[in-house]
Each structure stands twice: as C-alpha cells, then as structure tokens.
Amino acid sequence: xxxxxxxxxxxxxxxxxxxxxxxxxxxxxxxxxxxxxxxxxxxxxxxxxxxxxxxxxxxxxxxxxxxxxxxxxxxxxxxxxxxxxxxxxxxxxxxxxxxxxxxxxxxxxxxxxxxxxxxxxxxxxxxxxxxxxxxxxxxxxxxxxxxxxxxxxxxxxxxxxxxxxxxxxxxxxxxxxxxxxxxxxxxxxxxxxxxxxxxxxxxxxxxxxxxxxxxxxxxxxxxxxxxxxxxxxx
Length: 234
Fold this sequence. Notes:
Blueprint: E1 5-11, H1 18-26, E2 34-40, E3 57-60, H2 65-75, E4 80-83, E5 88-89, H3 94-101, E6 107-117, H4 121-137, E7 147-149, H5 150-156, H6 166-176, E8 180-191, H7 193-198, H8 200-215, H9 220-223
Parallel strand pairs: 1-2, 1-4, 2-3, 6-8
Antiparallel strand pairs: 4-7, 5-8, 6-7
C-alpha cells in the first residue's frame, strides 16, 4: 500500500543526530502509513551511510535545502509530504493531526507551532513570538515541519533554488495563490544549537532582520551573507 505521508528530511553532516530523529518518527502512534526519505547533500553520503533503520529511503542530491527537498519530493509516494529538519522532533500524534486537518480539501499546506529544546524565559518568548507570527501571517518556518499536498507542491512550483528563505518564499506563493495554510496546535521541538552557538539574542535579531529585508525585496543571495550556513554539529 502507498503511504499516506512521505516525510522528507534534508541533511548535511548530520550523522550525530540522524538516527535519533528517525527513531522518534518510527515511535509515532499513527493510524496510517508513512515513509521516511533522507536526502543527503554530501556527495559521499556521509549522513545516510550512518542510518541504521533499513526502512528509510536514502538518496543523494546537490546541496541546498531547496534542491534536496525537491529531490525527496520527487521520490515521495505519499499524497502528503512533510518536510522535516533533521534537528526537529515532531510531537506525539503529529502525523494523525496532519491527516485529520488535510481531510479538508481546501487546506493546501500547514505546519506546527514551535518549541525550542532549551530552558529559559528568552526561549519561551521566541516560541510564543514565532507561533503568533506564523498564525497571523500564515508563513511558518521550516523548523515548524511544513506539510503540503504532493500534487499541489508541484503545481505551485516546488522550492526555489535559493540559498536562504526557501520556506518563506514557498509559503508566500501559496498565499498569493489563495491556498489555505493551517497551523496545528502542537509544537515541534527544534534544537537550540544555533541560538546557543551564535548567542540567543544575536541569532534572534539576525533572523528578524533577514526576514524583514526579505519582505522588503532584498534577494536571498545577498541575505545569505548574514546567515552562517554551517554550525558545529559534533
């Protein structure tokens, strides 16, 4: 039987966390069928070579989240594709929640609320701000586990091959096309490693600046200069 949901995970040098992410997925209580597709942006497949679960579909793609997620989508057999960052954990019941909300054929895409895997008031404020922003703007970030109908994903033009803001740009196109985007009242848990390594306040202000400049029309290629693409994953 074909899966109901295809989970696409783009990775690059994520061998330290990939098996934990996959293990959590396969412990989800789900009434349907899902598949997991891990797309490695490294030519030598350094991350997918470490995957222990033999059920996982493993492919290599040119690097970049957009191209990698597009490659995974082309391999997907499910009617719904859920794009999951490797350092993001889905909440319990997430897949059932996706199936339930997508019973409404008017809904084209969606995501979850956000939580950050760190203690502290500042992180709670980031979470609340992110959830409020995405519910008002209907433009979630990739670490909120964006899901979308497969056919609609290709109709709308897939992810753009841009170095940054590919998730926001896709959501903008869906909104422009009058597609309904829903935010599920469950929280993904994303790693705090970038905030911790770059500094929580500095990282947050930088993210807001990049988002604002993007909305003002600054090209992603220029914005990428403000965003450090690689962090310590040891």
